[in-house]
Specification:
The chain is of the alpha/beta class. The protein contains 22 helices and 15 strands.
């Protein structure tokens, strides 16, 4: 195997940036024109300060094995003790090499609890692996007459200089392994889905049976135990550093905050971002007081967000409207955190609403089967999750998603669709019932209306997205906009905002429109904009008093 090292490294005087933004590319190339084998090759980081910490990992006892990873492995200590591994570095992702050599790739991944994407080369065999959460990106460059990847990287932007005119940058699909022996056809294998139960912490699935509690009641207890374990294990990881929480004031982030408080996380900091009119600000402040956190209220300026669009699209590597709006908010938060050297790890409630079917359009489902089919289709294309890691990593912040742990997702989705469908006009009804009368959340917050994060950053009357849209329309040529379907046949933009995002993306990633397989459009015909505030069912949603409805049923 031909291996040489090279890397662009981003650092400043005070902080070394998180490995998610490391510019490392593996190229699979021939040693000579007559050779039929393709060998992984990367470029040298010996002259880079602090480079040893970010060098691709190799282990003396396994010569020829090289690992490049964007990974947080939360149970690596447990695995190290279980199998008596002797780790040679202080990087938890090294456990991936030992597990792979002991069990093989698929079996090893089933025991890993974490969020990861990585490239592993074992002599002539190469593996591109991406977990099922969708929070970490992994890409490869494919040519029309090539049986497998030409090169692979953790960021799509790194492959742009290799693409020439015919190569297409592709995502490694969720929960998949793309592998090849460099002489034969490359193959793809799905090793996990959100419905598949992993093999770690199975003790949480079988707590002691308590008399008088139904089987459904036992499953709800297990769900609460899993939530606590997922948040606690992430907060107590030895590599976690200073901990923060994105506290919007809603149910998801408040549950995480309460568990972090009970886990006695020291110096917990919470962050809220919004305009002056943001109506969730008070709820966020109350949440921070209830968990005794050091709270930071970050002011969001839509005009500054407009100026940030080019940089955000460059980092987020997408033109999806919903993803970019979230990324603009997150960019503001992460820039603030970086400037104040506030935290190393940011907890986030993202993902739960995808798993639980919390978007209010699910109320339009006529039956459990329609609800389930729509949910499954949406889960196959989780748009925007990796944006959090890409933005956070630029500022040296690791973002973790406890509600996307496979143990939680598989257990929750194991409940029947009849249980999980919205009831009484209340979205996420079953999840709320599972947490009712528990120490995870107060009744007032449990039965609060769900508000999308983008929407909650301002009031209904002064919606910041409308300001952004007005600014975008001023910079879009009307004649070009009228020809948008001819210019962009794939994912054609519907508004001037979407058109500006697409134009900006094409300048950074020319001819790579398929890098975004689909853009988010709400289901059931409730609207075309990703913001629930624009949907025709939004006023009806606000008319339901969740807490009063539940109390009437008791």
């Amino acid at each position: 195997m031909l291996v040489s090292w090279d890397q662009e490294f981003i650092a400043d005087k005070n902080k070394i940036f998180h490995y998610g933004c490391i510019k490392l590319v593996i190229r699979f190339q021939k040693l000579n024109t007559d050779d039929q084998a393709w060998y992984p090759e990367c470029t040298s980081i010996d002259n880079i300060p602090y480079a040893a910490k970010y060098r691709p990992i190799s282990v003396d006892i396994y010569p020829g094995v090289v690992l490049i990873a964007n990974a947080d492995i939360f149970n690596y200590h447990d695995l190290q003790e279980k199998y008596k591994f002797q780790l040679q570095s202080d990087r938890p992702e090294e456990i991936l090499i030992h597990m792979f050599k002991l069990h093989g790739m698929s079996a090893a991944l089933n025991e890993i609890q974490g969020e990861y994407s990585f490239i592993l080369c074992d002599n002539e065999m190469s593996y591109l692996v991406r977990d099922g959460t969708g929070t970490r990106g992994l890409y490869y460059l494919e040519y029309p007459h090539r049986s497998g990847p030409m090169c692979a990287a953790l960021r799509a932007s790194l492959l742009a200089s290799y693409q020439h005119s015919v190569g297409q940058i592709r995502h490694v699909p969720l929960g998949s392994i793309i592998y090849g022996d460099n002489k034969k056809e490359w193959r793809r294998k799905v090793f996990t889905t959100v419905f598949q139960q992993p093999s770690y912490r199975l003790d949480l699935l079988s707590p002691p049976c308590k008399n008088g509690i139904s089987a459904l009641g036992q499953m709800r207890m297990r769900l609460r135990n899993i939530i606590k374990q997922n948040i606690t294990c992430r907060s107590k990881s030895s590599t976690i550093g200073k901990v923060g929480l994105l506290l919007s004031g809603g149910l998801n982030s408040r549950v995480i905050g309460n568990v972090l408080r009970d886990s006695q996380v020291k110096g917990l900091k919470t962050f809220f971002v919004g305009t002056k009119s943001a109506h969730e600000r008070k709820s966020s402040e109350n949440g921070a007081k209830s968990i005794s956190s050091i709270h930071h209220d970050i002011m969001f300026d839509p005009k500054q967000a407009f100026e940030d669009i080019p940089k955000v699209i460059e980092l987020a590597e997408t033109y999806d409207t919903s993803s970019i709006r979230k990324a603009l908010l997150l960019f503001t938060v992460c820039k603030y955190i970086h400037q104040h050297n506030a935290i190393d790890v940011l907890f986030c409630g993202e993902g739960l609403d995808d798993i639980a079917g919390s978007q209010i359009y699910y109320k339009q489902a006529k039956c459990a089967q329609e609800f389930q089919t729509t949910l499954e289709n949406n889960l196959k294309r989780p748009i925007g999750r990796e944006v959090y890691d890409k933005i956070g990593s630029w500022f040296g912040i690791r973002i973790v998603f406890p509600f996307l742990d496979p143990l939680f997702t598989s257990h929750y989705l194991n409940f029947s669709a009849e249980d999980r469908i919205p009831r009484f006009g209340i979205e996420k009804y079953f999840f709320r019932v599972c947490l009712d009368h528990s120490d995870l959340i107060t009744e007032e917050v449990l039965w609060k209306h769900r508000e999308d994060w983008v929407d909650s950053a301002s009031s209904y009357d002064r919606f910041w997205v409308k300001t952004l849209q007005r600014l975008c329309s001023k910079f879009v040529d009307n004649e070009e906009f009228q020809k948008r379907d001819e210019t962009y046949s794939h994912n054609s933009p519907l508004t001037t905002e979407e058109f500006l995002y697409r134009q900006t993306f094409e300048k950074i990633f020319p001819d790579q429109q398929s890098l975004v397989p689909a853009i988010f459009r709400p289901s059931f015909g409730v609207g075309t904009d990703p913001s629930p505030r624009t949907w025709n069912i939004y006023p009806q949603h606000l008319c339901v008093d969740f807490l009063a409805t539940v109390r009437m049923m008791i």
